[in-house]
Amino acid sequence: MESVLITGLGFITSIGHDRTTVAHALKELRSGVVPWDPLPGTTLPVKVAGTLKGFDLSAADPAGWVFPDGCAIDRQTLRSLPPHGACAVLAVHQALASAGLIPDDCRDGRTGLACASGGSPQVMHQRLTAMERTGWQRGHPLGVIASVAGTLNFNLAAHLGIRGACCGFVSACASSAHALGYAADAIRLGRQDRMIVVGAEDLNVAMLLPFHAMGAVSLEADPARASCPFDACRSGFTGTGGAAVLILESGRTASRLGSPRLARLAGWGEAADGLSVAAPHPQGDGLARAMKLALTDAGINADEVGWVNAHATSTPAGDRAEALALQRVFGHHRPAVSSTKALTGHGLSLAGAMEAAFSVLALQEGFIPGQANLVTVLAEGVGLDIPRETRDLRPQIVASNASGFGGANVCLILTHD
Prior knowledge:
CATH architecture: 3-Layer(aba) Sandwich
Largest sheet: 10 strands, mixed
Number of domains: 1
CATH topology: Peroxisomal Thiolase, Chain A, domain 1
CATH class: Alpha Beta
Order of helices and strands: EHEEHHEHHEHEHHEHEHEHEHHEE
Oligomer: single chain
Number of strands: 12
Strand order of the largest sheet: 5-4-6-7-1-8-12-11-9-10
Number of helices: 13
């Protein structure tokens, strides 16, 4: 089958809006989690978040959105976008440029699009409230396009003129990892020469506060203690938003075009827990199976993995289950294990793509991020190699994990080309 290369990256994240800034933040363990007060005058239980510096996407009318210098989207395109859609457009153009491509290259019929987001509850609420005020007689003509879960596909396919595959993924926090796996298969099977994979999510009260009702979000006011994966005192995840984009190309296409060869997506695996609508399997069964399937798909032994970019969101149940799954899969091989969510917060549908892109940076730049905010390792993680400081060591192979509601688990294997 065709090999799958990653040739371009794009970032709009809490730790930076370009490759260089993001790489430095990961290496230096510089956090994007800060005090968060989205509704001044309102006492919210959630006090911190991984915010997008220089952005203000809170206005109901996209014409009122504020972007940092160097980021601009024309008003016509903005009309049908949710907040995270604007981030996705910016990240897509960044990724295309980094791969040496222009938007017209996406119109060849051999370029596909795979997106993941949870839609925009904020925009949905705004549009429905406006309709209710008029007695349901009038609504925004693009209200559906800008709010439902397929919003990224609708907007980006039209914006880029995509004529190849176009598909959306909705498996909660595993969504964009699923998108990467299925996009890789489309290339490996020869159905597409190139895939643009996008993960994006809003950060606002409409997206984040419902998770507080589940008891899943940290209520810590100290950013250094709010997101602390694998720590014995972890109390829940910290939210973030933004977008991450990866350009995948077949080895043949990359060679023909002279594309940058940043990394290879060597294999992937998925497996469900089949147990709970929300909680992970207590022993991490599904994630352990996903990791084993990914290693088999890539033709790699467990002892060859140098770093596991863990899903670990800082929730009590999730981190415990993942630690147990890692113990079962890797045993005495002990690859380095850390979760970059300590620095960024948890991006929900965005997480899989964002962290796969971080893994590419680690392969390219030659480092393994340390586990920020770790004080005392949880009991189930004792025996894992969880470095507290960044290691100036180039991993040869990275396993990047993602897990979502319903026990959806994905593992991606990334290597040097």
